[in-house]
Design brief:
- With 148 residues, the protein is mainly alpha-helical.
- It is built from 5 helices and no strands.
- Helix 4 packs antiparallel against helix 5.
- The N and C termini lie far apart (52 Å).
């Protein structure tokens, strides 16, 4: 039985298009930043404070090195990105892959490329991002290494 794909309303299509634009902006911003050779701290170029968790404990938080990883990935430096934060490198690639799907789904007015709904791919994206970040953080803590 072939169930027709749901038609996406204008608000949902706008949300998908806005998400794509936001991710493109995020990747563009990451490209404008100079990756910190330490593997973390690149976000301070945006006027943000250094990681309080790292300063207080000496251990990285789950997102330590993520901005640096994004900056390296936008330069095609996969090894450097993964050294900064493996989860950040994976997330940067996932974001780049998600953009065409968001645009295609917004344009077509229905979920594209085998997706039966927009919920499934977006939930998988978020759960995977959080799961990979926590897994990488746990490994870093177990190994007792902050970076590299």
């Amino acid at each position: 039985m072939n169930v027709p794909l749901p038609h996406l309303g204008p608000w949902t299509r706008g949300f998908l298009a806005s998400g794509a634009i936001g991710i493109i902006g995020l990747l563009g911003l990451a490209r404008m930043l100079t990756p910190n050779p330490q593997g973390f701290g690149t976000h301070t170029q945006l006027g943000l404070l250094p990681c309080g968790f790292f300063r207080a404990t000496g251990y990285p938080c789950p997102s330590c090195g993520m901005t640096t990883a994004f900056a390296w990935m936008t330069r095609g430096r996969v090894g450097m990105a993964c050294r900064a934060n493996l989860a950040g490198g994976v997330l940067a690639v996932a974001c780049a892959v998600l953009v065409p799907w968001l645009i295609a789904s917004a344009w077509a007015g229905r979920p594209c490329w085998g997706a039966r709904s927009i919920d499934g791919p977006l939930v998988v994206f978020v759960v995977t991002a959080v799961g990979v970040s926590l897994a990488v953080w746990t490994v870093r803590l177990i190994l007792g290494r902050a970076f590299g």
